[in-house]
Amino acid sequence: MGPYPAQAQPKEAKLWGGRFEEGVTDVVERFTESISFDKQLYKQDIMGSRAHATMLAHQGLITVSDRDSILQGLDEIERRIENGEFNWRADREDVHMNIEAALTDLIGEPAKKLHTARSRNDQVLTDFRLWCRDAIDKILVSMKQLQVSLITLALNNEGLIVPGYTHLQRAQPVLLQHLLLAYVEEIERDAGRLVDCRARMNFCPLGACALAGTGLPIDRFMTSEALGFTAPLRNSIDAVSDRDFVLEFLSANAITAVHLSRLGEEWVLWASEEFGFITPSDSVSTGSSIMPQKKNPDPMELVRGKSARVIGDLVTLLTLCKGLPHAYNRDLQVAKE
Ligand code: ARG
Fold first, then answer.
1. Which residues form the Fumarate lyase N-terminal domain (predicted)?
2. Which residue among 9, 122, 177, 267 is least enclosed by CB atoms within 10 Å?
């Protein structure tokens, strides 16, 4: 029987398991879980649930007292997660079921009403869009910092003439600041692509439910607004099918990574004995005991090296999506990794 116990512990019934007589095997559970990576979406998941519960009560679909118990319960769960007191369970598959089941353990019956007019399919997209939106905001700040550093470097070296290259042959003399400001322009366009992507991504999937929406009188504009989205997505099948917002995000990141990789390559060349334009300071270099003449520009080599992963992420997601029929398919879980 290998590492799996012949007599499994009695298992908790799955949220979707009403009609099922048997649970899944441990190996299937481990193979299909996403909690090991999607727990990173906990904040967005809780935000989405707060907005959804508030809307359900406003529409008279749950009582105000159920709403209050749900909101208090979610606060407590968020506190436990942030204090490292939350028990993430692989048998509860993903972040959505972990939080919802924990809420049921905590407050009982009212928690079960939170899933009214909602499916994990529209929930996962809501979390994912919110997460990518936050990630873009953080990356934009880093890009601005990099631009400021490059401009500072240009100002500190005003008037310094360096060889400009074409075909990696010395071509014409240029000012160092001219080249440094070329990097700044590239990053400006990279940031622009993220800003465009953010605007296109910022629409709310909630209410799409599994794929066909719901007959219940929900208010999709209310949840969309509460979560800072521009508007609800128009088509529910589109809302739960597509990951083009992630593809766009990864495309923009891949282009940025290529820009950074070229910058890295250039500085690695400059640090070589042959070019000798820069000597990286000790604080950003490594050496060798057997070849004491060496000073290796490792961080810039790794800027170049790590760009491969960013490009790889884009290729992975393109490949993941290309053969999928509409609407949700479990393959899409992998997109979050
Ligand atoms: N764990 C799943 C994922 O991350 C959640 C969505 C599951 N939906 C479903 N119909 N099984 O993609």
1. 18-312
2. 9
121 within 8 A of 209, measured Cβ to Cβ: yes
Terminal Cα distance for the chain, rounded: 31
Model pTM score: 0.92
Q: What is the Cα–Cα distance from 317 to 249, expressed in whole angstroms?
A: 11
262 is in which domain, residue-wise? 121-336
**Across the chain, which distance is largest between two alpha carbons, in Å?**
78
126 lines ligand 1 (CB under 6 A): no
- Of 116, 131, 161, the residue at which a domain comes to its end is 116
Ligand 1 pocket mutation pick from 31, 33, 320, 330 by most atoms within 8 angstroms of CB:
330
CA of 328 to the centre of ligand 1 (A): 8
292-334 residue pLDDT tens: 888 889 999 999 999 999 999 999 999 999 999 999 999 999 9
Instruction: Judge whether 288 counts as a catalytic residue.
Output: yes
d(CA 201, CA 137): 13
Cα–ligand 1 centroid distance for 121 (angstroms): 6
Asked if residue 159 and residue 302 are part of one domain, the reply reads yes
